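Entry for the shared binder. Reason: the reviewer on the internal report wants the predicted structure included alongside the sequence.
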Amino acid sequence: MSRGDPNVRPLKGPFGGLIPVLRKEAIHLRRDPMALFFAVFVPVIQLFLLGYAINTNVRDVRTVVYDAVKDQDSQRLLDRFENSNDFKIVSFVDSDAELNSAIIKGTARVGIKIPPDYSRNLLSGETAQVLVLVDGSDSMVSGETSNVANAIAFQESLDRLLGASESRGSLPVEVRRKILFNPDSRSPNFFIPGLIVVLLQMMTVMLTAFAIVRERERGTLEQLFMTPVRPLGLMVGKIVPYACVGFGELVFVIAIMRFVFAVPINGSVLLLLAMTIPFIVTMLGVGLLISTRANSQQEAIQLAFGTLMPSIFLSGYIFPIDSMPAAFQWMSRIIPATYLIEISRGIILRGAGFFDLWKQGLILSIMGIVLTLVSAMRFRRQVG
């Protein structure tokens, strides 16, 4: 009926028809739970992430110690480091090679070496030096830990001076700080290796999610179902081209990182490309899973962006995982981006090799297999 229909009575007042329209929109909102979820619950999730998980105060930085003295003086200094709550000693090693290896592998962010002459220099009145190696691939950690290490050495020196019976011309304890891998603390060196992972995830998930949703909206997916193509053949045929596009984008972004932003690549590029393949497979599985859940391209966009938020805030891309509460640290371990960021920074900045990062690669491979199988089963069920 048109507005000019004489049989239709116009509702009186400036708010005429308000109640019917409200009722209609309430019914639409009730029938679209995904829109309600993104409108109400996503802001609440963001609030919890920003309020609890994001902590700019660096705490419990994983630290490896090479104590060549192992006496009361060295233990007193190590107690100061651990009691500061900025350092968390996770292991002790017996050589410089093991100390460097722990930082290259990423099992520790800080290395402390107490040399053999530490106690002897304290007794003789000379300055006892302590070497602190800091992983410069994380600029937030390197800056904070360097400042705290100097403060600890100064406090130890002050306590010894106050307790000494005779004066001395220099501080008893001195920290020699050495920032590894990113000595100039360049921001591109820290952010771009992680940004590569975020961009790769966004592109692969969105393209794959749209691939099937777009076919369903146009009605061409049903036509494919009536052809002799098998469900798995259809699924693989839909996602393999996007895997190739994602891999090509990865190569292009790495080239830009190296030649435009001048980020040095200290490890093997081929190893980085090879260990990225399980991540691409995992993200294709996530995109396919979204496509089996979403009923429209708009819903697919919302779900795809929903996977990005945890990958940015909880993966260690910006904020250190060690400083997060235990529950969020556990959540970070089920996010695929966490492992590829460790691989990317390890190879690009620290020059890590396969045997340093094989655990991250294995976890990504398992994630990729599981997500692909789950997505394939849902896809087959949907086709059936």
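Summary line for the report: The mean pLDDT is 84.
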